[in-house]
Amino acid sequence: MNITWNAKEYKDHFSFVPSYGEDLFSLIDAPAGSRVVDLGCGNGALTQKLAERGFSVLGLDASAEMLALAKELHPGLEFRLADATSFHLEEKADVIFSNAVFHWIDDQKALLRCIADNLKPGGQLVCEFGGVGCAKSVHDALSYGFARRGLSYSMPFYFPTIGEYAPLLEEQDLRVCFASLFDRPTPQEGPDGLINWIRMFDQKPFSGISDTLTQEILKEAASRLRPILYQNGKWVVDYVRIRIKAVRL
């Protein structure tokens, strides 16, 4: 995963991430007691919700800071530090669930191979992540700001189409039985909601750039995007999501 998380800031001001993820539960049709792995569990908010539905849960995440918070908030649940592309389960899972994680992973083939290896035959992958066009206006504005200063903006996310992603799943014997790509405009908190969103989620392009120049680019982007993304007194980022259910053959 190509980001370093501020776990407290994420919990306090970006709780919409797990909140939206609850809607994904409708795609899980495993019975109570099934072993469900929350891959990229973050602070454990959705792991807890899965446990409340009667599943035997395990939360995996690559961020030690996020896991420390998850263990503090949900002391009765099991959490482990693990890389999504190389984790190993002693007992294969009935369901691997993942919300807002896959777009951070550079090696998609390794990710899906690892998931397939850790699912029982007939086991389910239920996931949602950024799809093609996600936050496009934000990335376009930042790219423009970088280019104006002779810099190159490198987009740190993987946002595929369904047509791109389904074959990757099928290569790993994961049969796609549901796939949807949809717009989900996402409101942000406060008057600086857009800048705070960029600082939380889009860190990598600013690596090595001074704080002064970073702030200049962010303010310019916010000014360019205000007519588009500032709606009824709130910043609303133009999210696009891809939602998938696949079954291990």
From TrEMBL:
Q: Which UniProt keywords apply?
A: Methyltransferase, Transferase
Has the keyword Nucleus been applied to this entry?
no
Q: Which Pfam families match?
A: Methyltransf_11
Transferase as a keyword of this entry, yes or no, is: yes
InterPro entries of this UniProt entry? Methyltransf_11 (IPR013216), SAM-dependent_MTases_sf (IPR029063)
Q: Which SUPFAM superfamilies match?
A: S-adenosyl-L-methionine-dependent methyltransferases
> Domain of life, per the record?
Bacteria
Task: Report the record's Gene Ontology biological process terms.
Answer: methylation
Q: Record's Gene3D superfamilies?
A: Vaccinia Virus protein VP39
Single GO term (MF): S-adenosylmethionine-dependent methyltransferase activity
Residue stretches making up the Methyltransferase type domain: 37-127
Name recorded for this polypeptide: Methyltransferase domain-containing protein
The record lists the organism as Guopingia tenuis
The lineage, from the top, is: Bacteria, Bacillati, Bacillota, Clostridia, Christensenellales
